[in-house]
User: Fold this.
Amino acid sequence: MNINDSIKNRHSVRKYTEKKIEGEVLESLNNKIDEINTESGLNIQLVTDEPKAFQSSLAKYGKFSGVNNYIVLIGKKGRYLSETCGYYGQKLVLYAQSLGLNTCWVALTYNKVDGAYRVASDEKLACVIAIGYGENHGTKSNSKSVSDVIDGSVDEMPEWFLDGVESALLAPTAVNQQKFKIKLVDENEVDIQPGLGFYTNIDLGIVKYHFEVGAGSCNFEWA
Ligand SMILES: Cc1cc2nc3c(=O)[nH]c(=O)nc-3n(C[C@H](O)[C@H](O)[C@H](O)COP(=O)(O)O)c2cc1C
Assistant:
């Protein structure tokens, strides 16, 4: 499965089977986390066989069941932590999809569990991602259209830009809000604004990663 297939096939999954993440899949996932932590400076941790975070009424309200594994996005406190966690967390989500795993970003409907992961005093937990083998592969959510999220006329945009926007529209956002706006500011320069709402800076990082994959990083630079 290539990364564009992972983008198209990924949907949030909230109900998981008992099947454990183990063997080569576990090893590959852990190796990817190590690689991403080295590249980003984050302290992302995989928690396996830990059901407590998703057992409370809060998780049930969020319609979660069978969540025994999750990824914890942790990094040094700072202005760009949310965006960085969004960007690298989504890299992991798409990698997990290619391994046959399902995921769901979760900012609210889970509980913090003492001792399940380590957060240093200068660090912050930005978000978690439920992960495992889903009871199903989820379903496609409603999406805004290209013209809803770009500044300017669709007809005047280069193909690589529109490919990037299509990919961005397949990105998960908190409560599917898709508050971002993307603008071609110069021939090869793109600006993106997060918009107002909860967790829009995490969304921003996620959407930026999708745009880069869809548009091709060689075609443009962020403004
Ligand atoms: C930053 C962020 C936080 C989220 N928090 C929650 C959450 O607390 N509970 C939940 O059930 N879903 C949560 N989601 C999942 C979104 O509701 C979901 O991604 C969105 O509805 C789009 O659906 P899709 O991922 O299937 O495309 C979150 C997603 C993001 C990106």
In short: The beta strands are 45-47, 70-76, 102-106, 123-132, 150-151, 181-186, 189-193, 221-222. The chain has a mean pLDDT of 97.
